[in-house]
Amino acid sequence: LQERLGSIFEGLTKRGALSEKDVSEAMREVRRALLEADVALPVARDFIKKVTERAVGQEVLRSVTPGQQVIKIVHDEMVAMLAGGGEEGAPAPSSDDAADDAAGIDLAAVAPVPVMMVGLQGSGKTTSTAKVAIRLRDKAKRKVLMASLDVRRPAAQEQLKVLGEQAGIDTLPIVAGQDPVAIARRAMEAGRLGGYDVVMLDTAGRLAVDEALMAEMAEIKSAANPHEILLVADSLTGQDAVNTADLFNKRVGLTGIVLTRADGDGRGGAALSMRAVTGKPIKLLGTGEKLDEMEVFRAERVAGRILGMGDVVSLVEKAAETLDAEQAEKMAAKMKKGQFDLDDLAEQLKQMAKMGGMSGVMSLMPGMGKAKKQLDAAGMDDGVLKRQAAIISSMTKTERRNPKLLNASRKKRIAAGSGTQVQEVNRVLKMHRQMADVFKMMGKKGGRKGMAALMN
Ligand code: GDP
Ligand code: MG
């Protein structure tokens, strides 16, 4: 997506506010990316509308391209939608450690807190029940009892018992011939008597949502009065998972969603659709068959996956934080005229240091990993930036304006003054000459070619 957006904005060197035309062209690409990521059409449409409203008229930061700026807006809106209430400006849920420990599961109720897992057959309910139980025990330090209410599938209760034995989590003893509601009551009773903090209720599924399943879930719900009802949904089933979530939510009422098989889903679109359609948070991601393969849902990570971009977003964020717009504007005017003296270079070095140095900047740019390694190997670390700045500040004002004055004896003086070697002074001067040339070119031919020259 980022490449496509980049090409849309190629040649667009003008700065200022994003126009409606800029944005609507970019949104065509965003829309395609969303649909490719398996985001439901109405959700994609709604999303595009919100982003367009936010983007049109927004000032482009001096240090980023309009394409990068649009990506940032798209990304922020997506994170807000995945994390918040889906409403504009809704605050993202806090991600403090305590909340992380319980994996976003609300345990603020009288113990034993009933947590009910619902979903279609094969979605990963039983596995996820055990995974969540382990998390609650290990991270939130809760005593957990698990019970299988699945009397439909042969050996379903056995399956949970085996997982419990593997993980060292207690399971409710199996009693033949009981119906799910009776098992739920017995589980809650055992939870009370055994001093458990949490009782996890694993339920039966069907191949598709039907009335019998919904009726059974509703009965269990009224018997156990669960504090959390988590839908377990297979992210690989895409649009079906979204419909399932909608039906379960309307009929049984959900408090959250666990998305399984995130390990096989490179697209992540189901998460956005489910969030938008149900309004319920995605709390956890299943990332494999093993019992420790579960992660707390992170909106930023999934947004990145849906948009298929590198870390342009954090680059833009850093640029916004550190670059003083006025300073950048002056620089841009100088570049146009082909003026770039050593004071300007010093300013550039300062900005670069603020952004974490050359390697910091590079590691944020997609596809620059290799270049970064070379830089590190060449010793272009932050210490170098500091020494280069020291060299420039050891020059006189006149020297900085006119580097041609720097003969051998002046260079020696500067090296001594900055505690460096003449070689290093020469390197700074060479870098300055190269950059001045590039900026001259950028001023004449526009940014792209200038950048290309810089890379060669
Ligand atoms: P249930 O019918 O909903 O209880 O589903 P199960 O918990 O029995 O899981 C069905 C299959 O999916 C099992 O083979 C699990 O190992 C597998 N499974 C569950 N969660 C995940 C996951 O997050 N990733 C992967 N790759 N497989 C999973
Ligand atoms: Mg099961």
From TrEMBL:
Residues holding GTP: 119-126, 202-206, 260-263
Entries under InterPro entries matching the protein: AAA+_ATPase (IPR003593), P-loop_NTPase (IPR027417), Signal_recog_part_SRP54_M_sf (IPR036891), Signal_recog_particl_SRP54_hlx (IPR013822), Signal_recog_particle_SRP54_M (IPR004125), SRP (IPR004780), SRP54 (IPR022941), SRP54_GTPase_dom (IPR000897)
A GO cellular component entry from the record: signal recognition particle
Enzyme Commission number(s) from the entry: 3.6.5.4
Primary localisation category: membrane
Compartment(s) where it occurs, according to its Swiss-Prot or TrEMBL record: Cell inner membrane; Cytoplasm
Source superkingdom: Bacteria
GO molecular function terms listed in the Swiss-Prot or TrEMBL record: 7S RNA binding; GTP binding; GTPase activity
Key word Amino-acid biosynthesis present: no
Limits of the SRP54-type proteins GTP-binding domain: 281-294
Membrane topology value: Peripheral membrane protein
Enzyme class: hydrolase
Catalytic activity: GTP + H2O = GDP + phosphate + H(+)
Annotated coiled-coil segments of the chain: none
Record GO biological process: SRP-dependent cotranslational protein targeting to membrane
Quaternary organization: Part of the signal recognition particle protein translocation system, which is composed of SRP and FtsY. SRP is a ribonucleoprotein composed of Ffh and a 4.5S RNA molecule.
Role description: Involved in targeting and insertion of nascent membrane proteins into the cytoplasmic membrane. Binds to the hydrophobic signal sequence of the ribosome-nascent chain (RNC) as it emerges from the ribosomes. The SRP-RNC complex is then targeted to the cytoplasmic membrane where it interacts with the SRP receptor FtsY. Interaction with FtsY leads to the transfer of the RNC complex to the Sec translocase for insertion into the membrane, the hydrolysis of GTP by both Ffh and FtsY, and the dissociation of the SRP-FtsY complex into the individual components.
Family designation: Belongs to the GTP-binding SRP family. SRP54 subfamily.
NCBIfam families xrefs: ffh
Name of the molecule in the record: Signal recognition particle protein
Organism: Pyruvatibacter mobilis
Gene for this chain: ffh
